[in-house]
Amino acid sequence: MTTTTPLVLERVCQAHESDAHRHLRALLEQGLPLTPRPWQALAEQCGLEEAEVMACVDRWQDEKLIKRLGLVVRHRCLGIRANAMVVWNVPDEQVARVGQALAQESVVTLCYRRPRRLPDWPFNLFCMIHGIQREQVLAQLELLVHHHGLAEIDHQVLFSHHAYRQCGGRYAQGGSYAQ
Amino acid sequence: MLDRRLIDCYQRDLPVCPQPFQAMAERLGTSEAEVIARLQRLQALDVLSRVGPVFEHTLAGASLLAAVAVPEEERDAFAELINQAPGVNHNYAREHHYNLWFVMTAPEEQCLDERLNHLETMLGRTILRLPMLESFHIDLAFTIPWAELERI
Questions:
Q1: pLDDT tens digits, A167-176
Q2: Least CB-CB distance to A168: which of B54, B115, B137?
Q3: In the prediction, which pLDDT does A134 show?
Q4: Strands, E, within chain B: which ranges?
Q5: A74 CA to chain B: closest CA distance, Å?
Q6: Sign of CA dihedral A52, A55, A57, A59
Q7: Phi, psi (degrees; rounded to nearest 5) at B84
Q8: Angle formed by the axes of helices B2-10 and B20-28, to 10°?
């Protein structure tokens, strides 16, 4: 799947949103209340009916504004701590092909193209490999390099070793410090 | 085992019905109260960030991957400043010259730029700004390798 930032679509989505729906989105970003009637609880907070909230969530799923709805796992807490961000400096004419090829690999959880920032940052393709042990992740990377003929492509591996923050995006809220 | 089954079955497709936890309980052969108690506990343990939607960031607003290079011995203090900035939803230390990596989100692009400019002033360091240009694959709802986790 390939997506670029569809600014027009974004404006269309926002134009059709009432204050109550914006409020609902901001509440949803923080997760469902864990009570027997979560949609009802959200509805009361935004001045909507329970059925309206459920219809809205269904619509946002259909429109793909909501990519998935469910349990959002912090992998690090489960022991999946060897998380490597691999960055590649791929010639521009090859980057789409290499990106699509890496995206097909089951060990690759994220794969996207970003701009170079020369001279500081020459890398234009990013992929993540989430694993339990570092040696295992490095072995998987070696297989990727071999399988896709990437030995000539300059790359670096950035393991994360501490998470200072890991939560969902906060798009709908107004921003203020110490919120 | 119920915790694992909840995670295995419901990283996506949480039911949208008046009593979703009841519907999940029926499928898993337990009670609504038990499902709610398990989810509350997993959330308290930080295993779950939340139960709810993951928004498509290209439609939901503006976001950007950012990095800064800071002295390793001052990393915690810089990370704290970054966490205090509005819109920061991921912030990791990584083994690299650019040793702090974070994602900043905002309702729209202009607001995102202003937040980054402000943070850049606070940090006194240039922020590497790396917006996503093209997504080939994003799926963090992958199957958890429980058996492998047990072996470590």
A1: 666 666 544 3
A2: B54
A3: 94
A4: 48-55, 62-68, 88-94, 100-106, 128-130, 134-138
A5: 5
A6: negative
A7: -75, -20
A8: 120
Contact B66, B87 (CB under 8 A): no
In chain B the domains, ranked by start, together with CATH numbers, are 2-44 (no CATH), 57-130 (3.30.70.3460)
* pLDDT tens sequence across B11-26: 999 999 999 999 999 9
Q: Does the N-terminal peptide bond of residue B107 adopt cis geometry, omega within 30 degrees of 0?
A: no
The pair of structure tokens assigned to A5 is 């930032």
Tokens coding A116: 């170079």
Quick check: A11 pLDDT over 50?
no
Task: Read off the pLDDT of residues A34-76 as tens digits, 9 standing for 90 and up.
Answer: 999 999 999 999 999 999 999 999 999 999 999 999 999 888 8
Cβ within 8 Å, pair B10-A156: no
Give phi and psi for A142, each to the nearest 5.
-60, -40
Angle at the Cα of B62 from the Cα atoms of B60 and B66, rounded to 5 degrees:
135
Test the A interface: residue of B59, B88, B113 with most A CBs within 10 Å? B59
In A, minimum Cα distance to B83 occurs at: A165
Q: What is the pLDDT of residues B72-112, one digit of tens each?
A: 999 999 999 999 999 998 899 999 999 999 999 998 999 99
Mode of pairing for the β-strands spanning A154-166 and B128-130:
unpaired
